[in-house]
Amino acid sequence: MPSVNAVPTLDPPVRLVAAVEQARSAAIDEAALDVGAAAAPGLVGEHLEAVPEGPGGVTHYFDATYGGYRGWRWSVTLATGGDDSPITVSEVVLLPGSDALVAPAWVPWGQRVQPGDLGVGDLLPAPEGDERLVPGYLASTDPAVEEVVVEVGLGRPKVLSRRGRELAAQRWFEGPHGPASDMARAAPGRCGTCGFFLPIAGSMRGAFGVCGNEYGPADGAVVAVAFGCGAHSDVQVEPVSPVAVAELVYDDGVDLEPVEKG
């Protein structure tokens, strides 16, 4: 005896599964709205499958032969109220398949902007509630900032928060002027010991500075203390003779045959 809570599973009516041509006709009518009745039949390809949608519905899928819609398919849902009820078209829609070419997920403009995108005359306001900034009258936990804030009239409206400094430090440390870059690994010395290194003020003084060597690859940029390049102030080049020395030839005792002059 079946359980009281058991839900019977009903197969869709067989005639819904068999109504392939009715579903195809509905897809052709939908395609005709875009390309006209003459071209529409060529946009609905072979029947792919029929998927039950409960006891009274079936969705038929057809290959979409639209140019530029590789992997897409027509989805036509048919429904009926019973064996004596007519078959009706509930929905016709073009859907992407598993290997379809689809547009990337939409990203808000504010999240699409990348470092370096800002051009001359462009404006990029900080978002509301930006965690990188705090009002200047709040404690910033940076002694160098606090010295300015307490001076009436000289404080900035906003300053970097602790989170803002952490993000900047991580970005600079992992960037092209950080210790893991190819330039730093091949350098003879580190920026922290270079005479051209200008330490920055504030809590990040011990980790970062600015390069002041006009011949260095990071001149005017923030560099990590552990960064380095070939223009280090203590680089010593081994002197070599400016005169090219011919390669020496050694006589190893091989007998040479004289050549008679003709």
Your description of this structure?
- This is DUF3027 domain-containing protein.
- InterPro entries: DUF3027 (IPR021391).
- Pfam families: DUF3027 (PF11228).
- It comes from Pseudonocardia alaniniphila.
- The chain is of the alpha+beta class and 262 residues long.
- It is 19% helix and 19% strand.
- The strands form 3 sheets. Strands 1-2-3-4 form a 4-stranded antiparallel sheet, with helices on one face.
- Strand 7 and strand 8 form a beta hairpin.
- The longest helix is centred in the N-terminal third of the chain and has 16 residues.
- The radius of gyration is 38 Å and the shape is flat.
- The termini are far apart.
Please describe the structure with a list of short key phrases separated by commas or semicolons:
262 residues; four-stranded antiparallel β-sheet; alpha+beta; DUF3027 domain-containing protein; 19% strand; 9 strands; DUF3027
